[in-house]
Design goal:
The strands form 2 sheets. The chain has a two-stranded antiparallel sheet with strand order 1-2. The protein has a two-stranded antiparallel sheet with strand order 3-4. The two termini are 21 Å apart. The chain is mainly alpha-helical. The protein has a domain of 220 residues. The chain has 17 helices and 4 strands.
């Protein structure tokens, strides 16, 4: 009980400190920095949603870019006013049943998650009978199908022109509030009997089935929850960028998310959060490499894409020397900090140390 009490107080204090930091950041940082800070939160949600499938359930899925696109368009179309829709759909009018639909941001965001979750459920029922590379190819193909539909469904999505002038609803509080809520939900899910079932399927499907676990049903559930979270992230992204088009949800976007998951540690919530923040921030910090450089031994007039080469080299070094990622399958805990001496040990252990 004492351990639980101490950890609870530490968690409460850390939560208050985090909220205070958000206030400080909003008052201190410039608008551009805050935009990057919000993008970190969105990438945290995307990484956690993919890690639920790939890391905790052991399913190799590559369809998140398409699911994110569904969430983005659903949220945008529901949150836009009729006037905004008429301004966007000037080549071909929007379908009449969608023109007058206008919801506040929260219901639009939840509807985007639910619709994406439903589509994920349909995909899961069909594709999750496949395994390994076959599942990856099937989900990748499904992602491309969604992108093609978004491009050609002109009366609903405005086609290749996309949607512009979306309200900037994704504030820092919406972005990080959603990221925190998703993190808490996943922590509780993984610690529940469902989470233990997901992990058992990842470790050994045959043994899990022998223990009475509905393997296929648990796979579909995991995929559905992941799709729901991906739709939420897509909705936040749409109202963060304020403009979306199908090209933004090309299948390479999935690999960006997968990169974060692998770097942080497949099967680690903490790793996904740390890697999402680190990768998102690093991509902006290294932007100076694309401009003119004079390092004495290296002089360039500006090489677009050089930061990606440097960033890729850093990632290769990390993966080569630490294949399990930054966190492996480990999670943050106050007891772990106490064991390595960053926090005092409890009771008699503290006196013994």
């Amino acid at each position: 009980m004492k351990s639980m009490s101490r950890n609870a107080w530490l968690t409460f204090a850390a939560s208050l400190a985090g909220i205070a930091l958000l206030f400080v950041f909003e008052e201190t940082f410039d608008r551009f920095t805050m935009q990057i800070f919000k993008l970190c939160a969105i990438n945290v949600i995307l990484a956690l949603s993919l890690n639920l499938i790939n890391g905790f359930t052991g399913l190799f899925s590559l369809g998140h870019a398409g699911l994110m696109g569904l969430g983005a368009y659903t949220c945008a179309l529901l949150a836009m006013t009729p006037a905004q829709k008429e301004d966007n759909f000037f080549l071909q009018p929007i379908v009449p049943w969608l023109l007058d639909v206008h919801l506040p941001f929260l219901p639009s965001l939840l509807a985007a998650g639910l619709f994406t979750g439903f589509v994920g459920w349909l995909l899961g029922v069909v594709a999750l009978r496949l395994r390994d590379d076959y599942l990856a190819i099937a989900t990748l193909g499904f992602s491309e199908i969604i992108r093609v539909v978004l491009t050609n469904a002109q009366p609903i999505t405005n086609g290749a022109l996309g949607l512009k002038g979306l309200p900037r609803y994704t504030t820092m509080w919406w972005a990080w509030g959603s990221a925190i809520a998703v993190t808490v939900f996943l922590v509780l899910l993984i610690k529940s009997s469902y989470g233990r079932a997901f992990k058992s399927i990842r470790d050994n499907e045959i043994a899990a089935e022998a223990m009475g676990i509905d393997v296929f049903g648990m796979k579909v559930l995991s995929f559905t929850i992941s799709s729901f979270l991906c739709g939420i992230a897509g909705g936040l992204l749409a109202h963060y960028l304020t403009t979306i088009d199908p090209k933004q949800f090309f299948f390479l976007k999935t690999f960006d998310i997968l990169l974060i998951v692998v770097l942080g540690g497949v099967g680690s919530i903490t790793g996904s959060i740390v890697a999402a923040i680190a990768v998102t921030a690093s991509m902006e910090i290294l932007r100076f490499l694309d401009g003119p450089l004079n390092l004495g031994f290296l002089v360039t007039n500006g090489t677009p894409g050089l930061r990606m080469v440097f960033f890729s080299a850093l990632l290769m070094i990390v993966i080569i020397f630490r294949q399990q990622g930054l966190m492996g399958t480990s999670e943050f805990s106050w007891d772990a900090l106490a064991r390595i001496g960053l926090l005092p040990r409890r009771g008699g252990k503290e006196r013994d140390g």
